[in-house]
């Protein structure tokens, strides 16, 4: 490695993904993941120069030990000197942060304060920041917020039909998520369409275990399916997506659920998993449907595809023109079946697939899967880590 790079950290409650990236072209020099953190079986895996290896983490098996193991490897491979900054994925920036931000004590305090509306994500992100600060105390640390891209949504899109005082006093509003992914694929779509990004009007569908659909108008997010939390919107792997709020009261008042049980059910036991009673993994459901004739697996995929098609259609109301739709994320990039089911319900938007192209564009391949007479329908692999590296580098090199 002869070039400088950005170390990208994506920290979850029990995992820590990392990669050392060239911000100019997205080349990855080293990457890996530490998993099952805070558990005795915690381990870290490493990919460097096409070599893969894994080893267990020492006690206390936590994020700091994962960072320590990473630093040891970077020093062994003489890569530390090439790291110019650390870029962190932070899920929730509220209304405070709409741009990449140099991390200070004040920024950390705000990230901590926002944990009250992102309790599953921001505390873990903060753990990764503090572990990286301890390990790389001489390097600038930069936060890239998932919510930042959506801060251009107009008030008519982000406000709920609730008393306005809840927004003024408690910041209850739609925030949107997966912002770095939607931003990346929208920019890539502009290149494929040979059109300036600030003139592009798109609807992008990030479909993985978490799913969101976003309307992009002239390069800016103007509405998105996820809301105050990542639970709102379309049905997902194990999340219910939007439901009648009255169901929650019924579960608590009539069926004796506790609020904690309802929260767990809506986030962990619903969606594809809940409907199929089999799996939250689209691949497993397609296999069960095709090989075993599993009717519930098919039903789960039917509901999933319909809700996404409905979300794409409804978000088109925020645009005056539409240059195309974009599929990304693990399901969006790889499931030709789900893409076919979604687009079959979008004929009013003049979407019709080239079925051969649809079957071929998988596993990292990008391109247009629509017929020549159709509005473009693009498959674009996302690369959130490259966005984090690129934006971190740009922030530190502003004139």
Quickly describe the structure:
The protein is α/β, with parallel strands linked by helices and 399 residues long. The protein has helices spanning 63-76, 105-113, 122-135, 155-158, 164-170, 179-193, 245-253, 259-268, 271-276, 282-292, 295-315, 329-334, 336-343, 355-360, 384-396, and strands at residues 5-11, 16-21, 28-35, 43-48, 51-56, 83-90, 101-102, 141-145, 201-207, 211-217, 220-224, 324-328, 367-368, 377-379. Strand 1 (5-11) and strand 2 (16-21) form a beta hairpin.
**Quantity of strands, as a count:** 14
Q: Helix tally?
A: 15
| H and E order | EEEEEHEEHHEHHHEEEHHHHHEHHHEEH
* Estimated radius of gyration: 21 Å
For the biggest sheet, the summary is: 8 strands, mixed
Classification by helices and strands = alpha/beta
Helical fraction:
25-40%
Question: Strand percentage, roughly?
Answer: 15-25%
Given the C-alpha coordinates, what overall shape results? globular
Describe the 3D structure:
With 399 residues, the chain is of the alpha/beta class. Helix content is 38%, strand content 19%. The chain has 15 helices and 14 strands. The strands form two sheets. The protein has an eight-stranded mixed sheet with strand order 5-4-3-2-1-6-8-7, with helices on both faces. Helix 10 (282-292) packs across helix 11 and helix 11 packs across helix 13 (336-343). The two termini are 27 Å apart. The mean pLDDT is 93.
């Amino acid at each position: 490695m002869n070039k400088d790079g950005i170390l990208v950290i994506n920290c979850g409650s029990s995992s820590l993904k990392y990669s050392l990236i060239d911000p100019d072209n997205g080349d990855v020099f080293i990457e890996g993941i530490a998993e099952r953190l805070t558990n005795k079986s915690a381990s870290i895996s490493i990919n460097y120069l096409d070599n893969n290896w894994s080893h267990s983490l020492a006690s206390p098996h936590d994020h700091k030990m994962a960072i320590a193991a990473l630093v040891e490897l970077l020093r062994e491979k003489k890569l530390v000197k090439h790291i110019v900054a650390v870029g962190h994925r932070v899920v929730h920036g509220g209304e405070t942060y709409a741009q990449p931000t140099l991390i200070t004590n004040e920024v950390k305090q705000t990230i901590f304060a926002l944990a009250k509306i992102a309790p599953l994500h921001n505390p873990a992100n903060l753990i990764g920041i503090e572990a990286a600060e301890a390990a790389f105390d001489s390097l600038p640390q930069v936060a890239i917020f998932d919510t930042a891209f959506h801060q251009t949504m107009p008030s008519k899109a982000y406000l709920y039909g609730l008393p306005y005082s809840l927004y003024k006093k408690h910041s209850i509003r739609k925030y949107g998520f997966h912002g770095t992914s939607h931003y990346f694929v929208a920019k890539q779509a502009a290149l494929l369409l040979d059109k300036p990004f600030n003139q592009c009007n798109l609807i992008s569908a990030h479909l993985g275990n978490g799913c969101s659909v976003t309307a992009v108008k002239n390069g800016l997010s103007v509405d998105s399916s996820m809301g105050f939390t990542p639970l709102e919107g379309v049905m997902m792997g194990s999340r219910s997506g939007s439901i009648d709020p009255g169901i929650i009261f019924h579960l608590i008042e009539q069926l004796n659920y506790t609020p904690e049980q309802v929260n767990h059910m809506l986030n962990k036991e619903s969606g594809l998993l809940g409907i199929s009673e089999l799996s939250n993994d689209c691949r497993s459901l397609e296999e069960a449907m095709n090989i075993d004739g599993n009717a519930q697996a098919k039903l789960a995929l039917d509901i999933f595809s319909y809700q996404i098609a409905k979300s794409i259609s409804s978000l088109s109301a925020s645009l005056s023109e539409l240059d195309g739709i974009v599929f990304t994320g693990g399901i969006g990039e790889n499931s030709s079946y789900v893409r076919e089911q979604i687009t079959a319900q979008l004929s009013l938007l003049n979407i019709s697939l080239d079925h051969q192209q649809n079957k071929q564009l998988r596993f990292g391949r990008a391109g247009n899967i629509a017929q020549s007479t159709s509005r473009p329908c693009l498959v674009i692999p996302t690369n959130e880590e490259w966005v984090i590296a690129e934006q971190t580098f740009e922030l530190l090199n502003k004139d």
